[in-house]
Amino acid sequence: MVAAMRHRGPDEEGLLLGEVRAPGLALGMTRLSIIDLAGGHQPIWNETNDVAVVFNGELYGYRDLRERLVLCGHRFVTQSDTEILVHAWEEWGEDALNELRGMFAFALLDLRERYATTPILFLARDPLGIKPLYYTQTPEGFAFASEVRALLAAGAAPKTLSRDALTSYLLFGSVSEPVTLVEGVFSLPPGHRMLLHVPERRRVPRARQWWDQVLSPAARDTRKPRDLAAAAKKLRPMLEDAVRAHLIADVPIGLFLSSGLDSGAIAALAAKAQAGIQSFTLTFPGTPFDEAEAAGAIAKHCGTRHSEVPLDGKAVVERLDEAIAALDQPTMDAVNTYFVSWAAKKLGLKVALSGLGGDELFAGYSTFADTPRLSRLIRTAWFAPAVVRRWTKQFVAALAGNRSSPDAGSKAAAAWVSPDALPHPYFFTRTLFPPGRLERIIEPRFRPSTIGPDGVTLEPTWVGWLQRAADEARKLEPVAGISWLEMRSYMASTLLRDTDSVSMAQSLEVRVPLLDTLLMEFANALPDAARRRPGQPKALLVEAIRDLLPGEILAQRKRTFALPWEEWLRGPLRKKLEASFANPAPALKPVLRRGGTQSVWNDFLAAKTTWSRPWSLYVLNEWCRRHLAA
After folding, report:
1. What pLDDT digit, counting tens, does each position of 541-569 carry?
2. Residue 405: what pLDDT?
3. Is residue 381 within 8 Å of residue 416, measured between CB atoms?
4. Which fold has domain 215-363+494-555?
5. Omega before residue 586 within 30° of 0, cis
6. Predicted confidence (pLDDT) per residue in 97-139, tens digit
7. Which DSSP category does 514 fall into?
8. How far apart are the C-alpha atoms of 397 and 437, rounded to whole Å?
9. Do domains 3-133+188-211 and 215-363+494-555 have the same CATH topology?
């Protein structure tokens, strides 16, 4: 398992074998050294050598937490953020999670007899799931890792396709929390924890929620801002503090810079905090996708040391197999981020800041406008008999379709014909193959979660996870509810997972300051009146950083970062995709419906669908070919 994850941490490896003190237990880790390069070896023990931890991630503001723990009588032997965890556990137990600010997944071993009659292993993941943690229960015992592929490499899980997860993948273009494409392997959900007694061989431990946005200090604050101006005034110092905290490192650090507002805001704030910081842009010379000019203007305005890394279709073809191999789970999105991470590595960076999270927190996506429209359509659908909805679906699709997105009509038609197919109207806006189209490719499975008598999920499913998110969103105001759904679905299951997987494949750590715990909780707790201004996307963020960026950047329409896939799929990548579709992976072949994949490809060639549909099928096929048995 350690060998399978060496790309995540090529600097060092650490092992902990329980042997006499915790028989049957073994922990391993690989380290990408970022803080305290010489002293931060893992596993790290407490003073009395009876509490140890292996840790993936970064704790921000850890120096303040260290001072508090020293005042409580704890002795530190390193300068690393990892050591915070063992002492915080000694001091506060599971409540230590509420003191942590950062991105993390960790496993903590406690051998103290006064805490439990047997050694315990405590697993936890950060509130939004920036860092991954996967687990499985086998006849031999319990196994967990930062990547699904590590579990497969150890033979801890059978290489069997999960039909439930496959449905999720085709619906949304990625596998939704908390399942994976491998049967019996699950993700510890964001903001959840797990406690095991060692040895644990039969009973599957249950994931329990430890973070709840409704219970955060910001949500309970009765003096929270009620209007945009007041919220922006309070947000600005929180943005500055988040970026400053995310710049702490003992290695070279830089930032992704596109032409957009989110990365521009990070660049401006980072340049104020650290003179001469490195920024870079992935460019596509001679294409409409090239953001070099606009990104260069932002870099010049902010005073960063800026670099451009060009990429063309030929280079993508040459490195495509390498990019697909970097994926821990298949996804239609991650290859974009792979090449950005590749560019960062070429420049010698070990840490890079990203603007990820800005669209979710500050209402930058089209879903914030599309969801209310689909909600009205679904409310109307309930008054029409099912047979009428089927007769009129083409009319609805034609009304909803638009030139910029050929798939918009099929999403609206799916919501009209099957309004109860998904737990919330928002999820229709995020579908890749919506209900109705999905059935042409596979026989879908929608299995609800099994809930025990104590209210704890016995067997997690993606349907149950989305239903929980939808139930929580309905308690919030409209914009806040969509923001929550974005963070619990698209951001967690696609953007954050993809970013971690492909950046760590390059031994690069990506940090996301806009998802800083304190900042995120503050924004989540705001009423809609303090988050938006009619006609202005991301109004709160714009208002908070108005003096830092040129007016044309603040006023521009959202431009999604994407590679020129439409052009490449019709050109240099066409033969590669057609060869893949002609030879389905053995694990997929029994479940794919005859002609389904080819019909998607034909629709793309005829400009009846976007590139994302055939591309997602290609990535799925190649991932299954590499990792799953027939």
Report:
1. 999 999 998 888 887 766 665 677 888 89
2. 72
3. yes
4. Rossmann fold (3.40.50)
5. no
6. 999 999 999 999 999 876 667 889 999 999 999 999 999 988 8
7. G
8. 13
9. no
pLDDT confidence of residue 397: 87
Greater confidence, 225 or 260? 225
Q: What is the pLDDT of residue 435?
A: 93
Find the largest Cα–Cα distance for the chain: 73
User: Which residues lie across from 28 on neighbouring strands?
Assistant: 15
* Average confidence (pLDDT) over 31-38: 92
For residue 415, which amino acid is it?
A
CA distance 544 to 539: 9
The yes-or-no verdict on residue 291 having pLDDT over 90 is: no
Per-residue pLDDT of 563-614, as tens digits, reads 778 888 998 899 999 999 999 999 999 999 999 999 999 999 999 899 999 9
Rounded CA-CA distance 90/75 in Å is: 12
Confidence of residue 314 (pLDDT cuts 50, 70, 90): confident
Joined tokens for residue 473? 């969103």
Per 3-state DSSP, what percentage of the chain is helix, strand, and coil (rounded to 5)?
45, 15, 40
Taking the C-alpha atoms of residue 439 and residue 423, their distance in angstroms, rounded to an integer, is 18
State the Cα–Cα distance between residues 310 and 292, nearest whole angstrom: 9
State pTM to two decimals.
Answer: 0.95
Q: Residue 411 corresponds to which tokens in the numbers above?
A: 């999403």
Find the radius of gyration of the CA atoms of the chain.
24
d(CA 279, CA 254): 6
3-state secondary structure of 53: strand
Sign for the CA dihedral angle at 394, 399, 404, 409 comes to: negative
**What residues does each domain of the chain span?**
3-133+188-211, 215-363+494-555, 367-483, 582-627
Going from the C-alpha of 622 to that of each of 20, 149, 325, 342, the distances in angstroms are 44, 15, 9, 21
Cα 573 to Cα 323: distance, rounded to the nearest angstrom:
14
Please report which residue ranges of 453-561 form alpha helices under DSSP H: 462-473, 478-486, 497-504, 517-525, 539-544, 551-555
- Residue of 161, 127, 165 whose CA lies nearest to 463: 165
Question: How far is residue 407's CA from residue 412's CA, in Å, rounded to a whole number?
Answer: 9
Tokens of 413: 């038609």
Give the mean pLDDT of 42-58: 95
DSSP letter string over 422-462? SSSHHHHHT-SS-TTTGGGTS----PPPEE-TTS-EEE--H
Reported as a single tens digit per residue, the pLDDT across 461-508 is 999 999 999 999 999 999 999 999 999 999 999 999 999 999 999 999
Give the pLDDT confidence score for residue 629 in this predicted structure.
76
What contacts 324, CB < 8 A, 6 or more positions away?
335, 619, 622, 623, 626
Tokens of 42: 């893992």
Domain range 3-133+188-211, CATH architecture? 4-Layer Sandwich (3.60)
Copy the structure tokens of residue 270.
């980072």
Q: Give strand pairing partners of 345.
A: none
What average pLDDT does the chain have? 91
